[in-house]
Automatic annotation (TrEMBL):
One of its GO terms (molecular function) is ABC-type transporter activity. It comes from Capsicum baccatum. The lineage of its organism: Eukaryota, Viridiplantae, Streptophyta, Embryophyta, Tracheophyta. Residues 81-210, 674-721 form the ABC transporter domain. It is a multi-pass membrane protein. This is Pleiotropic drug resistance protein 1. Keywords: Membrane, Transmembrane, Transmembrane helix.
C-alpha cells in the first residue's frame, strides 16, 4: 500500500485518474497512449510515470506495489514550455498497456466527491454496487465455497457486513444516505460509503483520492489500517492520496524518531534552497534511484501474469442481470418517491375537475361549426394538459444524472440498462394518470358516448403522455442542467403549440415553416383526437349551408385532415416518436458528459509574484524613506464590527421516529439527536467544536444558525442577551441572525462562473449589509481589503483568479 502525499493542487487526483485509466482522452496529446500528469516548473517537465507492478489476486503467486516516480526532462523548446503539454511514458499493468484490457474494472478509482442517491440506504447502496460489479475472477472459488457451505448446512453472514464494520457503517446500515433536501447520514459517513462502493467489488488495485476528507483522525486511521490489512491479506495494490500536513509538522514528525534528525538537518549549517533539478539528480544518482531505474528499464515478463489478473470483460455481470438490477433499483426509487406521483395524481384530478366545469355537456350543443370549435378547444386542452404532465420527467432525470455519470464511468452498467427501466416502469403510472383523466372528463364534457371511441382516446392519450415523457427525458439528458433543460423544454413546447395546427392553421403557416408543422408532435396528437371525436355518430349530420357531415367540416375548418385513417397515422407517429425519443435519451446518456472541461489551475508566479514582492518592500531614497501604501494597510478586521457573544442552554433537538426504527420495535415517538447541549461562544476567542463523525457537530451549528426547518428544538439560544427570534420586538436580532447564517453556512455553494475573489467580494458585501443594514456598509475599498486578507489567510492568494468550478 502506497500513500501519495502532497498539498492541494499538486496533481494527486490527476495521477490517480491516469493510473486507473480514467484520464480525460482530450488531455492526451502525444505518443504511447499516455495516461499521465504533467506539471511545469523552472522550464522542466516533470512526468509522473507508473511502471510495472503485478496486480495481485488470490490465484497469483507474486504481488508488487505500483511503482511510481518522477523524472525531470528538459523542454524540447524552452520558449514553448509554458504553452505545450508534452507527455511521455506509459502506464502498464503486469506488462500490459491500458488499451489491452479494461483498466476501469481492473483498477478501482475512489473519488473524493460523494455522489449517491439520497433515497437509498447505506446497505442498499453497497448491495447495488456489489451486484453490478460482480465477483470477477473469484466466481469459481465462490461457487465451490457456496456448494460446500450448502452441503455442511452453513449459513454465512453477508459479506457486506464485514465491509460496513471495517468502515464504521454498521451503525447506520439502514439509514438513508440523504442529500440537500433529505435528512440522512453525516458527511463523514458519506465519505465512507464512497469508499465502500468500490471495496465491495472485485478490483484488487485501488486508487483512492483523499479518502480522509471529512473524517476524524481516529476513523481515518482505522480505515487506513483496515485497508492495509486487507491489501496484505488479498495480495492487492493500493495507492492512497492524502493531504500533506504543514512542512514543519511533517518534518518534525519524521525527525522525532530515534537518530533521524541527523539525516535531515544540521543546525550548525545555514539552510540552502534546493532546486528541483538538484533534487532529481541526487535521487537518480543514489542507489535507490539507480535500482529503480534499472527495474523500470526491464519489461515485465507477461508469462508471470495470471490470466485472471486483468479483466477483459466490460461489465461484471450479464446483460439480463444488469437490466434486472437497474429495474429493481428504479422500482425502489419510485416507491421512495411515491409522494411525487401522488402529488401528480392530485394535480391531474384538480385539473380534470376544472375542465369538467369549464366544458360542461349541457352547455355544449352540436349544431353548428362554431359549436364544433368549442369541442376542438376542449380536445386541444386535453392534449396540452397530458403533454405538460410529462414535463416532471425532465427535473427527475437531471437530479439523478451526477450519480449516473459516476456509475457509468465506473462501468457499473451501460446506458441502455439505465434508460429502459426508467421508461418501462413509468408505463403503469401513465395508465393510472390517463385513466384518471379520461374517466373524469370524457362523459362529463359530452364527447361521443361510443365505448370504442372512449377506449381509442384513452390509448391515444397514453401515447401522448409517453411521447412527452420521452421527449423531456431526452431534453434533460442533453441539457444536463436545469437552466439549459428548462430553456430547451419551454422552447419545444412553444414551438409545438404554435405550429401544432390549432393556434395557427396549416393554411396560414408560411412555406419556409411548413416542415416544422409536419414534424410537430402536437399536430399528430390533435389531428388523431379530433378525428376520433368528430367521426362519431353525433357529428354525422349535414352542416348548415354545407354538403358534407358537420364533423368533417369542423375538422377541415381547423386546418386538419378529416379522414378516419388519420387517427392511425397519428397513433403510429406518436408511437414512433416515443421510441425515437427514448432511443436518443439512451444515446445521450452514453455519449454526453457533464458540462465543464477539466483544466489545470496555474498559480500566479513570475512577473506577478515579483511585482507583488516588490510592492511589499520598503524602498529608500536620498530624500528619506518612502513607505509603500501596502505597508500601512490596516491588518485584522477592516470592516466595522461589533463583537457579540452567543450562549445556549439545554438545547434539545429531536425528530419524528423514522418508520424503519419503528419496525425494529422502537417505542418512542421521537428520536433525540441532541440532548441537553449547553455552551457559550465569546468574542475574540476561537472555539473549536470537535467530535467524532456523526456526533452532531453539523446539527448543532445548523440549529445555532437558525437553519433547521424541521424537527423539534427546545432550549434557550441568546445573542448578547437577546433571545434569537424573528419578531417585531427585536429587529436587531433579525439582522444579526442573517449575518450568523451567512458566516455559518456548512454547504459549499458558489457561483461556478465566478472566480475565487469575486465570490469572496459578493459574500463580504452580503455579510456587511447583514451586519450594518442595507446601504450602510463601509465602502467598496474596505470590502476588497477584507476579502484580500481573508484570501491570504486561507492561502488562496495564488488562486485568486481561478474559477471555482464544481466537480
Amino acid at each position: 500500500m502506497t500513500l501519495l502525499l502532497g498539498p492541494p493542487t499538486s496533481g494527486k487526483k490527476t495521477l490517480l485518474l491516469a493510473l486507473a485509466g480514467k484520464l480525460d482522452p482530450t488531455l492526451k496529446f502525444l505518443i504511447h497512449g499516455v495516461s499521465g500528469m504533467l506539471m511545469i516548473l523552472d522550464r522542466y517537465f516533470i512526468v509522473l510515470l507508473c511502471s510495472r507492478g503485478s496486480i495481485g489476486n488470490s490465484l497469483s503467486t507474486s504481488s508488487e506495489s505500483v511503482v511510481w516516480t518522477a523524472y525531470t526532462l528538459p523542454s524540447p523548446d524552452p520558449t514553448l514550455s509554458e504553452y505545450i503539454h508534452w507527455l511521455s511514458g506509459k502506464v502498464t499493468y503486469n506488462g500490459y498497456e491500458v488499451h489491452e484490457f479494461v483498466p476501469q474494472r481492473t483498477a478501482a478509482y475512489i473519488s473524493q466527491h460523494d455522489l449517491h442517491i439520497g433515497e437509498m440506504t447505506v446497505r442498499e447502496t453497497l448491495e447495488f454496487s456489489a451486484r453490478c460489479q460482480g465477483v470477477g475472477f473469484r466466481y469459481d472459488m465462490l461457487a465451490e465455497l457456496s456448494r460446500r457451505e450448502k452441503e455442511a448446512n452453513i449459513k454465512p453472514d453477508p459479506d457486506l457486513d464485514i465491509f460496513m464494520k471495517i468502515l464504521g457503517l454498521d451503525v447506520c446500515a439502514d439509514t438513508m444516505v440523504g442529500d440537500e433536501m433529505l435528512r440522512g447520514i453525516s458527511g463523514g459517513q458519506k465519505k465512507r460509503v464512497t469508499t465502500g462502493e468500490m471495496l465491495v467489488g472485485p478490483s484488487n488495485a485501488l486508487f483512492m483520492d483523499e479518502i480522509s476528507t471529512g473524517l476524524d483522525s481516529s476513523t481515518a486511521y482505522s480505515i487506513v489500517n483496515s485497508l492495509r490489512q486487507y491489501i496484505q491479506t488479498s495480495k492487492g495494490t493500493a495507492v492512497i492520496s492524502l493531504l500533506q500536513p504543514a512542512p514543519e509538522t511533517y518534518i518534525g514528525r519524521v525527525t522525532s524518531k530515534k537518530d533521524q534528525q541527523q539525516y535531515w538537518s544540521r543546525r550548525n549549517e545555514p539552510y540552502r534552497f534546493i532546486t528541483l533539478k538538484e533534487f532529481s539528480d541526487a535521487h537518480q544518482s543514489f542507489h535507490v534511484g539507480r535500482k529503480l531505474g534499472d527495474e523500470l528499464a526491464k519489461p515485465f515478463d507477461r508469462t508471470k501474469c495470471h490470466p485472471a489478473a486483468l479483466t477483459n470483460e466490460t461489465y461484471g455481470i450479464g446483460k439480463r442481470e444488469l437490466l434486472k438490477g437497474c429495474a429493481e433499483r428504479e422500482f425502489l426509487l419510485m416507491k421512495r418517491n411515491s409522494f411525487i406521483y401522488i402529488f401528480k395524481f392530485a394535480q391531474l384530478t384538480i385539473m380534470a375537475l376544472m375542465t369538467m366545469t369549464l366544458f360542461f355537456r349541457t352547455e355544449m350543443p352540436r349544431d353548428t361549426v362554431d359549436d364544433g370549435g368549442i369541442y376542438t378547444g376542449a380536445l386541444f386542452f386535453v392534449v396540452v394538459t397530458i403533454m405538460f404532465n410529462g414535463m416532471a420527467e425532465m427535473a427527475m432525470t437531471i437530479f439523478k444524472l451526477p450519480v449516473f455519470y459516476k456509475q457509468r464511468d465506473l462501468l457499473f452498467f451501460p446506458s441502455w440498462a439505465y434508460s429502459i427501466p426508467s421508461w418501462i416502469l413509468k408505463i403503469p403510472v401513465t395508465l393510472v394518470e390517463v385513466g384518471l383523466w379520461v374517466i373524469l372528463t370524457y362523459y362529463v364534457i359530452g364527447f361521443d358516448p361510443n365505448i370504442t371511441r372512449f377506449l381509442k382516446q384513452f390509448l391515444l392519450l397514453i401515447l401522448v403522455n409517453q411521447m412527452a415523457s420521452g421527449l423531456f427525458r431526452f431534453i434533460g439528458a442533453v441539457g444536463r442542467t436545469m437552466g439549459v433543460a428548462n430553456t430547451f423544454g419551454a422552447f419545444s413546447l412553444l414551438l409545438q403549440s404554435a405550429l401544432g395546427g390549432f393556434i395557427l392553421s396549416r393554411d396560414d403557416v408560411k412555406s419556409w415553416w411548413i416542415w416544422c408543422y409536419w414534424i410537430s408532435l402536437m399536430m399528430y396528437s390533435a389531428n388523431s383526437i379530433l378525428v376520433n371525436e368528430f367521426d362519431g355518430k353525433k357529428w354525422k349530420h349535414i352542416a348548415p349551408n354545407g354538403t358534407e357531415f358537420l364533423g368533417a367540416t369542423v375538422v377541415r375548418s381547423q386546418g386538419f385532415f378529416p379522414d378516419a385513417y388519420w387517427y392511425w397515422i397519428g397513433f403510429g407517429a406518436l408511437f414512433g416518436f416515443t421510441v425515437v425519443f427514448n432511443f436518443c435519451y439512451s444515446r445521450a446518456l452514453a455519449y454526453l458528459n457533464p458540462f465543464g472541461k477539466p483544466q489545470a489551475v496555474i498559480q500566479e508566479d513570475g512577473e506577478d509574484a515579483e511585482n507583488g514582492q516588490a510592492a511589499s518592500q520598503i524602498t529608500s531614497t536620498e530624500g528619506g524613506d518612502i513607505v509603500s501604501a501596502v505597508q500601512n494597510k490596516k491588518k485584522g478586521m477592516v470592516l466595522p464590527f461589533e463583537p457579540h457573544s452567543i450562549t445556549f442552554d439545554e438545547v434539545v433537538y429531536s425528530v419524528d421516529m423514522p418508520q424503519e426504527m419503528k419496525e425494529q420495535s422502537a417505542i418512542e415517538d421521537r428520536l433525540v439527536l441532541l440532548n441537553g447541549v449547553s455552551g457559550a461562544f465569546r468574542p475574540g476567542v476561537l472555539t473549536a467544536l470537535m467530535g467524532v463523525s456523526s456526533a452532531g457537530k453539523t446539527t448543532l451549528m445548523n440549529i445555532l444558525a437558525g437553519r433547521k426547518t424541521g424537527g423539534y428544538i427546545n432550549g434557550d439560544i441568546k445573542i448578547s442577551g437577546y433571545c434569537e427570534q424573528n419578531d417585531i420586538h427585536s429587529p436587531y436580532v433579525l439582522r444579526h441572525s442573517l449575518g450568523v447564517q451567512l458566516l455559518s453556512r456548512y454547504s459549499r455553494i458558489y457561483r461556478l462562473d465566478l472566480i475565487v475573489i469575486e465570490n469572496g467580494c459578493f459574500r463580504a458585501f452580503m455579510v456587511r449589509d447583514a451586519r450594518h443594514g442595507w446601504g450602510l456598509g463601509s465602502g467598496r475599498d474596505s470590502n476588497s481589503m477584507f476579502v484580500d486578507e481573508v484570501a491570504e489567510l486561507v492561502e488562496l492568494g495564488p488562486l485568486r483568479s481561478a474559477l471555482v468550478g464544481l466537480l
